[in-house]
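REQUEST ID: PR-0412
SUBMITTED BY: lab tech R.K.
PRIORITY: routine
TASK: structure prediction, single protein chain
INPUT:
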Amino acid sequence: MSEKSFLLAYYSSSGNTKALAQNIHQIVGGEIFEIKPQKPYSKSFLSILLRSGLDLVTGNKTPLPSTTDISKYDVIFVGYPLWISNTPSPINTFLSDHNFAGKTVIPFCTTGGGKAGKSFGNVQKLAKGATVLDGLQVRAGNIAASKEAIEKWLIKVGIK
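STATUS: complete
OUTPUT:
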């Protein structure tokens, strides 16, 4: 591993993204930080779609009760579940509330089947000043067996 300092910041609604973040953390090390909205999202998929869709349409920022100082990290992995083919509002708030100038940001997401391209572009847009590397998308059913895909991805983006 290089001398770079790593942060794995993630938001997980069902536990899938948390599991993927932990798999990545086992390989790269560093610190891990769970992004939690002040008002938790419902576990109901329909409620999640309605609230996240409303957030996307209105541009609402989801308040986060706590955050972390990203200034001490060189590389920041940002993980999230893919919602309506995009980043969920807690991730948008996290990205827009921090100064990423000079940082390397690497997105990763979990999905039930959607495509992550739009969300990776959103990370690029919101992480102002960062170098955003290619993201990783893992289907929810494949997380347990994701270590090989993670290893290949980390080599591809030059982390390993």
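NOTES: Residues 6-156 form a domain with the Rossmann fold fold (CATH 3.40.50.360).
REVIEWED BY: pending
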